[in-house]
């Protein structure tokens, strides 16, 4: 291999670390610094003046590398004719990188050499240099792929043992990702309850931000951030890997699995897609009906300053909000005080523990089918049929768990020492009151009777729902 002299050489040092293990700590950047020190020493030893220092930290093969793109332009323009990197895998991550770099060097106005601080030096102006450079790149790529396979297997094994994945602190937990942070854990339970009570994401985002609670990364909550966090299996004490729940986690759950699955179903089902806009302001908006069957909305202020419930069509009823709300609230409070715990009885609620056992058995069966096929114990057709049946069973069980998670929203009201005080307290949200009303009764607002002054309770028809419709 013919090495060129150091005369008229202009070097660029290329540094890259695809994933800094110390990111976010006081040790962040140490790996890049070590690479830089070794490359600078290598340049000094060879008497190559360094004119550019390009860093692509935290840039994997799947992300655009600004430093690498700039390097190609510098080589093409002749501004750089020596490329120094710590090793081949730090310079070239993919076959595409290698091809583009190789073609750029061949077309460069000046001969280019590549030198690795922990490897060989290649003169790309000679056939031998190009051959050895290509061999070194292929060997490095092979080792990288083997390392990736080992790491994937290790990550899978780590997940199957229920251990937490590395990463930033998740909301509800301490930085160790296992210990509960009590204030956040309490708030998390409240958010799940609110979503089950037909609360929307926007109102929960406001509540969290107003309470001074931030995401695990210290940012303000946004609707999409909250949505993604709510559907995370880790909140139910489940360990997932590459989007698949693989086992129970080593950390305590923020909410039980049925509750998590119920909220997940609400947020992900197109038929029950959550609105992320403003919460309904009126107690009966969208719940109560006009005599024509349409829902009622809360209109703007009248001349007296009071707000009205009006038919969605704008044609049939227009009734003052406050007396209607007071009447409905009195009826709700009376039902809860009278029937108490009887409201919470649900004979159709499934056995959650049994469902969990069935779910785990189906998951084990799914894995075993793959093992049996790999060991040639069963033909491919049998494996595919078994997988289809097992996946159908899993979907059915998960749906039952989601239904079981629709906890009875009447529980807090029934448990309250004084239902009326609880109903009007600041601890109860408008969304909770609306869900309780929708659970217990149908409300129809009739037109006012002509010539009759004042509010007539007979113009609000309240029909209690039967127990089957009252269930969760």
Description:
It is built from 16 helices and 13 strands. It is of the alpha/beta class. The protein folds into 4 domains: 11-157, Rossmann fold (3-Layer(aba) Sandwich), CATH 3.40.50.1390; 182-272, Hect, E3 ligase catalytic domain fold; 289-346 and 409-470, no CATH class; 352-404. The strands form 4 sheets. Strands 2-1-3-4-5 form a 5-stranded mixed β-sheet, sandwiched between helices. The longest helix is centred in the first third of the chain and has 34 residues, at 127-160. The termini are far apart. Mean pLDDT is 82; it is low at 271-277 and 467-472.
What is the topological layout?
Blueprint: E1 11-17, H1 30-46, E2 50-57, H2 66-77, E3 82-85, H3 88-91, H4 95-106, E4 113-116, E5 121-123, H5 127-160, H6 182-196, H7 201-210, H8 223-230, E6 238-241, E7 244-248, H9 257-268, E8 289-290, E9 296-301, E10 307-311, E11 318-320, H10 321-339, H11 352-374, H12 380-404, H13 411-415, H14 419-423, H15 430-440, E12 441-445, E13 460-464, H16 467-470
Parallel strand pairs: 1-2, 1-3, 3-4, 8-12
Antiparallel strand pairs: 4-5, 6-7, 9-10, 10-11, 12-13
Helix pairs in contact: 6-9, 7-8, 9-12, 11-12
Under the CATH scheme, which class of the largest domain? Alpha Beta
CATH superfamily of the largest domain: Resolvase, N-terminal catalytic domain
Query: Taking all residues together, what is the mean pLDDT?
Result: 82
Helices and strands, in order, run as: EHEHEHHEEHHHHEEHEEEEHHHHHHEEH
Strand content: 5-15%
Number of domains: 4
Largest sheet: 5 strands, mixed
If strands are numbered along the chain, what order do they take across the biggest sheet? 2-1-3-4-5
Judged by helices, strands and strand pairing, the structural class is alpha/beta
Distance between the amino and carboxyl termini: 78 Å
